[in-house]
Q: What sequence folds into this?
């Protein structure tokens, strides 16, 4: 009986675990997304991984739009990500003064591929 309960709990736990689909390979990105990758490398990669599910100084951004919420608890949508990039949040500094609107748009396009 104990073994059956354990197996049932294990099956339920495994059924609840969902892995995220992998990011789009860099070789398949369009021009805007590639530029967004370059923006990410310049402004974000010192603190965030993009293609690895591990924290660096900040949380991984792998699958950032494939989850319902950002690590902060805010909804994972363009408005919240833009606000976080432009104005910062918690320990993340604002980087809005370091990129123009096109860079921001391209960065968001890239983040959607993760």
A:
């Amino acid at each position: 009986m104990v073994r059956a309960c354990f197996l049932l709990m294990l099956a339920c736990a495994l059924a609840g675990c969902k892995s995220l689909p992998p990011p789009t390979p860099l070789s398949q990105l369009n021009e805007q997304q590639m530029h967004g990758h370059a923006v990410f490398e310049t402004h974000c990669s010192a603190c965030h991984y993009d293609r690895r599910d591990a924290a660096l100084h900040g949380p991984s951004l792998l699958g950032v739009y494939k989850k319902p919420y950002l690590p902060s608890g805010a909804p994972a949508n363009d408005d919240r990500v833009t606000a976080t990039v432009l104005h910062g949040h918690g320990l993340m500094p604002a980087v809005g003064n370091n990129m123009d609107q096109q860079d921001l748009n391209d960065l968001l396009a890239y983040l959607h591929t993760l």
